Amino acid sequence: MTTTPATPALPGATGGPAPLPRRVVAQARFETVAMLRNGEQLLLLVVLPLMALVALTYTPLLDGVLPAGASRVEIAVPGVLALCVLSNAFSGQGIQTGFDRRYGVLRFLSTTPLGRSGLIAGKLLAILAVLAVQYVLVAGLGAALGWRPGPGALLLSVPVLLLGAAAFTGLGLLLAGTVRAEATLAVTNLVWVLLAAVGGTLFPSTTLPGAASWLVDVLPSGALGSALRETFLTGGPSPAPLVVLAVWALASWAAALRWFRWS
Amino acid sequence: MPAQSPTTPSTASSTASASALSIERLVKEFPARRRSRPSPGPGATRADVVHAVNGLSLEARRGEVTALLGPNGAGKTTTLECAQGLQRPTSGTVRLLGQDPWRASPALRARVGVMLQDGGLPQAVRPLELLRHVASLYGSPRNMDELVERLGINGFDRTVVRRLSGGQRQRVALAAALAGRPEVVFLDEPTAGMDPQSRNIVVDLVQQLRREGTSIILTTHLLDDAQRLADQVYIVDHGRVMAQGSVAELVAPGEDAPAVLALTLAPEHLDAGRWPWEAPEFAGIQVARDERTVTLTGPITPPLLEAVTRWFTATGAMPESLSLQPRTLEDVFLDISGREIR
Questions:
Q1: How far apart, in whole angstroms, are the C-alpha atoms of residue A77 and residue A147?
Q2: Which residues of B touch A105 (CB under 8 A)?
Q3: What predicted TM-score, i.e. pTM, was given to this entire model?
């Protein structure tokens, strides 16, 4: 974004834009508060993932895929973190952006000093802020349920989560910018349910029969789920899911840049 | 036709500092299948393309109120969207404060305030929260408290935008457009959906902004707004400027410009017979009657007035009222844009 000085302002006229970082942070704060205060969004972002964590820890659903010596919570937490990314970057911001577009909010804000690039930057920062809140809550509940990750895995999980967030943000914006807001709402919620149940987030793809398992491995949900499980259970993700996520991120952002409509 | 495109704003580039907005031969096409804009009818030339704006030129001078007046689908909003950098012109040039709005820098955007026709407001926040956020995007924003009070927004500041009435939302959108103390303000149908009290508040506010030196560019299909507010009026239809000028210029009676003579008579005189309408002075005059009123529309001349008063003398009919009215902006507008409803 350029901040080239315009023609000199008239006496007593406008004081110019706020500095770029302040504009973006202001937009991020505005979006984060809006997300976390909306009841339905809060359900999707925080309540359902935490319920999933409790359910997977207290039921034998994951017992079939537990690695030797691992506890249920150890395999549940990475999956729940992957679900958080899906809730936040794809469903949450997709729905918010879809309705912002429908109500002309994108158009209005792009006429302010925030501009289109500042608006997108604010949304990305809001996704990171919400993700931080989600991580703290999931890790906190996980710790209460006996989760004891190593500091190296915690650190390594951050870039993995960011890569997953990049892929799902691109997909969410692509949807929000191309179809009607109601369709975005319906599709993101449906996709959320499907990917949570059989998309390789909460349950590893190995729980699925052969061909389906292969399909789930190349979905961003399956790739993120397995990359996070490997990060926490085997000390680091293998290249395959990272490559899958990077391809989804590049493709979805390229498509969003090409087809996103602001009105 | 009064003052029809007397000067094209060809000097715009050399006098950029005197002009808040300068548009030359703007064309904006949309794919016809999208149906996102009302069809401008005869403006469309190719089957697959709709010309929402079709060769429109205008110049909004600094410190003035410029009104785009036209029926629905005339191209007013698309013109504003090109001026605000929300649409990229198909052809033609647009200069906002001397710069290209499509590539507007944050510095340029900080000098321009926009109120969109549909408001453009997030639905799930309260008005004051939203206004504080918008203000925070500017270096030295307006103190919003006074504006909020003046627009009566504090009366509903605990209600989220989604639950506000149309007129309330309009007031919030107006406040948002003014948050950065802009030099140029775009108001797309600013009084749409407002009750008369709110309309007066908005009209007063626009007049005050103008006194403070703000350039205001507004669209309206309310002739009253244009008449009360505008220094310059552009009557727009079919994506073009059909007439332009000050309100006084537009309604000035030309050689053959019609005016209106209205008479109110007691009913017995209305039925008195021997009306003089067949006299040669009444050629080209439209006569409309209802129970007590006779309205003559057309070129009202001294001989015609004499013929009317001669008839009063001959019949002993004394009118209860008699008034000669110049054309209103409404007459001009309807003459140009036609009287059929779209």
A1: 8
A2: 120-122
A3: 0.82
